[in-house]
Amino acid sequence: MYNEIPNYGLRAYALFFSRHSLSEEFSQSDLDWIVGESMKKKIFSLLLNNGWIKKISHNSYKCVNPEIILKGLLEFKVPEIIKKSKKPYAFTGLSAVEVWSDYSYIQRGKEKSPYYIKILKKDLNYWKKFFNAYRIPNYIKIGSTIGEFVILEPVEKLNSAEKNEIKVETLKETEKIAKANSFYAYPYNYMKEKYGTITA
Prior knowledge:
Elements: H1 7-20, H2 37-49, E1 53-57, E2 60-63, H3 66-72, H4 78-81, E3 89-91, H5 93-100, E4 112-120, H6 124-133, E5 138-140, E6 147-155, E7 161-163, E8 166-168, H7 171-179, H8 185-195
Parallel strand pairs: 4-6, 5-6
Antiparallel strand pairs: 1-2, 3-4, 7-8
Helix pairs in contact: 1-2, 5-7
């Protein structure tokens, strides 16, 4: 998994790549006389954990191809990341239509990939911190950016079901969303055919 990194990490990666390209190994000593010991460890941990460099041996590293990193920044990560959460949630709206229709309907592309997620109001700070930790842009009710992002919909009560290890709004509610818009006729018909008359 490749994640965005802060500027100090980007500068360090640029230094390693300009000195060693993809073929040469390097070590933490490359940053001697540049930053202190604690900052050096922080930089290497950041680059390693976010996929920008790879460990070759106990004390040697290589740069990951920047082309792979840049493409990786636009990968779909939210469905896997959210499985690590500790608070209740439910994919809602068009995201629920995607899940229940087994992705026969897909609302996303690499250029724009929104996820609509209901959360409890009392857990809002948790969710902001959760997605920020993975550098996933997140907004409350409305927002947009390039690539993957999350629209959080805080509610007082949350009702969800589980499908493919993901918590999602109930099938009945999702059917209502799909039925209300002729644009979603295909996923609506898919759900009706797969699940029959939806009563719950």
